[in-house]
Specification:
- The chain is mostly helical.
- It has one domain.
Length: 197
């Protein structure tokens, strides 16, 4: 599936601008993580291409508006859309969407780099946005890794963010938390206009 088609699906099913921006942010971050792993020559064999990683970010929460009151349906609705688009159940994108709500559905746990990248970065993008919103001009350009790390230690700040989920980046992706924050932040900063920050 192309990014253009994924955005079309997202926009048809999600109207809230901030929710759309969350999906964009995760997409930009996944693209940056893909680039980092490629530069380090550490991509898994048979990993999907960069566009698929970005498409995963765009679509991972695309059914949220329809499923927010019933989390047992989250991702299942998106999977039904992929079925209609003719995406095979064996496709890496399909499997990755299956793994996204694994804590509730337990259909498939993350196993691939792309799936673990989504698992770790999803919450981090929201945390970075929260840090940006307390900066003087509410801009991503003002945010540094140090700002994020300082807020990280303040458990009352963005308390709903599951820090342990993000911290799995070291074990599951072989990327230190510090580097993971830097990669994600840079990926988001390069698209700050599209994120409204």
């Amino acid at each position: 599936m192309t990014k253009e088609k994924a955005i079309e699906l997202l926009h048809a099913n999600m109207q809230n601008t901030n929710l759309r921006r969350h999906c964009y942010g995760v997409s930009f971050a996944l693209g940056a993580i893909y680039d980092y792993l490629k530069q380090q020559n550490r991509l898994e064999n048979n990993t999907p291409d960069r566009e698929t990683w970005e498409v995963l970010g765009i679509l991972h929460d695309s059914d949220y508006e329809q499923t927010k009151n019933d989390t047992s349906q989250h991702t299942l609705v998106t999977l039904s859309w992929l079925d209609k688009e003719g995406v095979s159940k064996e496709n890496a994108l399909y499997k990755a969407i299956q793994s996204h709500n694994h804590k509730i559905l337990n259909i498939r746990k993350p196993t691939t780099q792309m799936e673990w990248a989504l698992e770790c970065v999803d919450e981090l993008t929201g945390f970075i946005v929260a840090v940006a919103l307390v900066m003087p001009n509410k801009k991503l350009s003002e945010v540094s890794v140090e700002n994020v790390q300082k807020k990280w230690k303040q458990k009352a700040f963005a308390a709903a963010v599951e820090r342990e989920q993000i911290e799995q980046c070291a074990e599951k992706l072989g990327i230190s938390l510090n580097d993971f924050i830097q990669i994600t932040l840079s990926g988001m900063q390069q698209h700050s206009d599209e994120l409204g920050l």
